[in-house]
Design brief:
The structure holds two protein chains of two kinds.
Chain A (H helix, E strand, L loop, with lengths): L8 H8 L6 H8 L5 E3 L5 E3 L1 H4 L2 E2 L5 E2 L9 H13 L1 E3 L7 E4 L10 H14 L4 E7 L7 H4 L3 E5 L9 H15 L3 E5 L5 H12 L4 E8 L2 E6 L4 E6 L3 E4 L10 E3 L2 E3 L13 E7 L13 E5 L6 H11 L2 E4 L1 H5 L20 E5 L5 H6 L5 E6 L5 H5 L2 E4 L2 H23 L1
Parallel strand pairs in A: 5-14, 6-7, 6-9, 7-8, 8-15, 9-13, 10-13, 17-18, 17-19, 19-20, 20-21
Antiparallel strand pairs in A: 1-2, 3-4, 10-11, 11-12
Helix pairs in contact in A: 1-2, 7-8, 9-13
Chain B lengths: L7 E4 L2 E3 L6 E3 L1 H14 L4 E6 L7 H4 L5 E6 L6 H10 L5 E5 L11 H9 L3 E2 L2 E8 L2 E7 L5 E7 L2 E5 L11 H6 L1 E6 L7 H4 L1 E4 L15 H9 L8 E3 L4 H15 L4
Parallel strand pairs in B: 1-4, 1-6, 4-5, 5-12, 6-11, 7-11
Antiparallel strand pairs in B: 2-3, 8-9, 9-10
Helix pairs in contact in B: 3-4
The chains are: A alpha/beta, B alpha/beta.
Chain lengths: 413, 259
């Protein structure tokens, strides 16, 4: 009986008639699961009113095929896609590939993602990728980056510069999980050093600056970069950025695992971290400054701007207009026509965002804009925009930071 | 600053010019020599393991050194055990090296393996030695993005120097000729790496292609014409300057750029 397809001609008639008082009710039923149904001849039917488009301002349904559709329906689809990725599960891994990502600023960098992609290739379908994280992190996408097992080691002993402590922890992981390979990013931000220290304690010769892994062989740069070194893939691999494609096809478990005996890991450090040294931000080259305060045409009070840069401890930058007007020197110009910057935080004050300027800051992680015009391109690019007068906001920011510093001193005293 | 009893050894190698590939003094090793000269002047010992008749070694002597000590080894021999033996008996407090060699394997592992073999602490990216007293040295470590970190390290230690260290002085021709190169015969240990690995001319790395995995024509079109816009940035309108500044301050604190 169940395979007899029953139709409700009355409901169909109401659904076709937009002026019927019950039309809205039928329409809601047609959404979601009811957007597709089997027709009388066994053909799948779609309700174009439910499945496509969005409600326009006058309540009419609009279908925009130009690709620039801004309606809510499309965005919701995009969110669903992440969860629709197939979940790859490894219950009993045949072997482990361990990865120690850098996690600059607590998040996976593109270098880390490439490395996880390489780990995924090496793990295949039977192995598991174990990511080792030191300290706290702010990454939420370990599952779509390709991590099967996540081992987080937190505690005050891993804070700051603690290479010896971290190497001891990695050795404990080596003893417990017996990974087939260790992958670390060959970067100046920590992975290169940690990997070499770890390899030295294992008495291994790691493959360094690796840019290709294929069929058990790896190729890495040698010397000053004019030669390549080809060798069988060793246990410890320090890989360059873009060594493999990052994971995008599937979702992974990122199941938390723990280390058996954490408390015996304390070591007596021979190197003591005495903290960061205050570096004059004006002397840091702008191309590699971490935090840039950049001013443009909208800045009226340049003395206030310089004072804000000093209080915030930011390197100063400027847009082309501000440089042409003579407010800032030429070597401070940011953009395709000036310096391409790589700052982690870029605070743009009164910059509307010319194309050249936006190109120059394309490598920046967090962009904050202070601008009077909410429709300008810089506001579209920014992660946080304040639509207000720049002078007042800068002054308030200076007050806030000074109050914060004073409070910190009082706590320390 | 420099302690009268401080003994420093700098390990040097033969470099290669990036364009002409001619032998020269290695850039980072020259910086290590410069740092050593800052610390102890011409009491600095400079040590090389390899061919003593290499002309470019004299460029180090031209920096104002009276002599250079060479542990004679053929090409392809392992420098590590020889250097470790020498340093064990040398009674020095500080050993300076470059970060990685400009020729050969260039893995940058030598300082790490030496530190492991000798059981000494290793400081990477040494920018300056501030003071040496009571068995400890206070040093500055160079971090990416022009930052510095102060470390206190127990003597003796190995410090590797990268491009953040003070630039090396010029090499003068006269002192380079006058300087003396002293030889020492050592046991030759074969480097096992070359049994399984091979050097080849560097191939250009493949450029990463921008693969668009869109399923529909509309998605492909959008990907091809997309502007550089952040998705879903927060916009605060009609707020007081104080509220705006607080929002900015919160982000700056989260990112850890307010120190």
């Amino acid at each position: 009986m169940a395979d007899i397809i029953r139709r409700d001609p009355h409901a169909e008639w109401i659904a076709r008639n937009r002026l019927h008082p019950l039309h809205a009710l039928i329409q809601t039923n047609m959404h979601g699961e009811h957007a597709r149904w089997m027709g009388p001849n066994g053909i799948i039917r779609k309700n174009p009113h439910a499945a496509l488009g969005f409600s326009g301002p006058n309540g009419l349904r609009r279908i925009d095929r130009s690709g620039s559709q801004q309606g809510g329906a499309v965005r919701r689809q995009g969110e669903q896609q992440a969860s629709q990725l197939l979940l790859h599960r490894v219950e009993e891994p045949a072997f482990i590939i361990a990865v120690v990502p850098d996690l600059i600023g607590g998040r996976l960098s593109s270098h880390d993602r490439d490395l996880l992609g390489l780990a995924r290739q090496l793990a295949g379908s039977s192995g598991a990728v174990l990511a080792v994280v030191f300290g706290e992190h702010r990454e939420t996408g370990f599952d779509i980056a390709g991590v099967d097992r996540l081992l987080q080691l937190s505690g005050h002993e891993y804070e700051g510069y603690s290479p010896e402590q971290r190497v001891v922890a990695l050795r404990a992981i080596e003893g417990q999980f017996l990974p087939r390979h260790w992958l670390l990013p060959d970067s100046r931000t920590g992975g290169g050093e940690l990997g070499r220290r770890f390899a030295a304690t294992l008495h291994e010769r790691p493959a360094t600056r690796v840019w290709q892994v294929k069929e058990g062989q790896c190729i890495g740069r040698a010397g000053a970069g004019s030669e390549d070194l080809a060798r069988p893939l060793p246990k410890v691999v320090l890989a360059c950025a873009e060594c493999a494609e990052p994971v995008s096809e599937a979702r992974y478990e990122a199941r938390a695992v723990t280390l058996a005996d954490i408390h015996s890991l304390r070591v007596l450090a021979r190197i003591e971290d005495m903290g960061a040294v205050a570096v004059d931000p004006a002397r840091v080259p702008m191309a590699e400054a971490e935090f840039i305060l950049s001013g443009g045409n909208g800045v009226q009070d340049w003395d206030l701007f310089h004072r804000a840069a000093q209080v915030l401890g930011a390197t100063e930058g400027a847009s082309r207009v501000a440089v042409d007007e003579g407010h800032m020197p030429r070597h401070r110009q940011v953009g395709a026509t000036g310096t391409w910057v790589t700052a982690r935080v870029y605070l743009a004050v009164g910059i509307s965002g010319a194309v050249q300027h936006l190109q120059g800051i394309s490598a920046c992680d967090k962009v904050i804009a202070i601008n009077l015009n909410p429709g300008c391109d810089m506001v579209k690019r920014a992660d946080l925009s304040i639509v207000a007068d720049s002078n007042a906001v800068l002054q308030a920011l200076i007050d806030l930071v000074e109050a914060y510093r004073r409070g910190e001193q009082r706590e320390a005293a | 600053m420099s302690d009268a009893l401080l003994d420093v050894i700098t390990l040097v190698s033969v470099g290669s010019h990036p364009m002409s590939a001619r032998a020269r003094r290695a850039e980072q090793d020259a910086r290590a020599v410069e740092l050593g000269l800052h610390l102890v002047g011409d009491r600095l010992t400079v040590l090389h393991a390899g061919n003593p008749y290499e002309e470019s070694l004299r460029a180090y002597l031209g920096m104002g050194l009276p002599a250079l000590h060479v542990l004679e080894q053929p090409k392809g021999a392992d420098a590590l055990p020889v250097l470790a033996n020498y340093l064990q008996e040398a009674h020095v407090q500080v050993v300076l090296t470059g970060t990685q060699a400009e020729t050969g394997e260039g893995s940058g592992m030598l300082p790490y393996l030496l530190a492991e073999a000798l059981g000494w602490p290793l400081v990477v990216g040494l920018a300056d030695v501030e003071s040496v007293e009571a068995g400890y040295a206070q040093v500055l470590q160079a971090l990416p993005r022009g930052q510095r970190r102060r470390l206190k390290v127990r003597l003796p230690f190995i410090g590797s120097v990268d491009n953040a260290a003070p630039a090396a002085r010029q090499s003068a021709f006269g002192p380079a000729r006058r300087g003396e190169i002293t030889l020492e015969d050592v046991e030759v240990v074969d480097d096992l790496l070359w049994h399984e690995a091979a050097l080849q001319p560097a191939r250009p790395r493949p450029k990463r292609l921008k693969v668009i995995k869109a399923k529909t024509a509309a998605d492909r079109f959008r990907a091809a014409t997309a502007k550089a816009t952040g998705e879903g940035g927060q916009i605060l309108r009609d707020v007081s300057p104080q509220a705006g500044a607080e929002a900015i301050f919160k982000v700056l604190c989260e990112e850890g750029v307010i120190r």
